[in-house]
Design goal:
The chain is mainly alpha-helical. It has a domain at 30-67 and 80-135. 69% of the residues lie in helices and 0% in strands. The longest helix is centred in the last third of the chain and has 31 residues, at 105-135. The two termini are 35 Å apart.
């Protein structure tokens, strides 16, 4: 009886050698779809927290824990100055106040929401596909 037909015994392969060679050829950085998806999920979780926060946390508490922008302290402004306040205005439906606080806030908020919709659809599609494949 050969070693190939023994149950539980794995054949030796050189896959690990190929992976080491692949790492050396790319400078040690290998990006796969799975890694990209994991990073996208982590970033989307942070974005979801940013979107939900104005609905569940009072603005006074957020202002007490977030330090003032260093650009604002120096008398200038940055592209994110007023974004927290603007997101609170968007959560209450005061879109004009949000636009006045930071002119890019509505675009960023909509982009965040679209990202969350896309990742939710993507995850749902993957889950349904797994269920479908398991059934048949």
């Amino acid at each position: 009886m050969s070693s190939d037909s023994q149950p539980g015994k794995r054949k030796f392969s050189f896959c690990w050698l190929y992976k080491i060679n692949q790492l050396e050829n790319t400078g040690g950085v290998v990006t796969t779809k799975k890694e990209f998806f994991i990073v996208w999920c982590i970033i989307s979780c942070v974005i979801l927290a940013v979107i939900i926060t104005p609905y569940v946390v009072p603005v006074s508490w957020i202002r007490s824990i977030i330090p003032q922008c260093t650009a604002k302290i120096k008398g200038g402004s940055c592209s994110l100055c007023g974004m927290t306040t603007a997101f609170y205005h968007i959560a209450t439906g005061a879109f004009e106040k949000a636009r006045q606080t930071n002119s890019h806030s509505i675009v960023l908020y909509v982009t965040f929401v679209i990202n969350e919709i896309i990742i939710a659809m993507f995850i749902l599609h993957k889950m349904l596909r797994r269920v479908y494949l398991c059934r048949y």
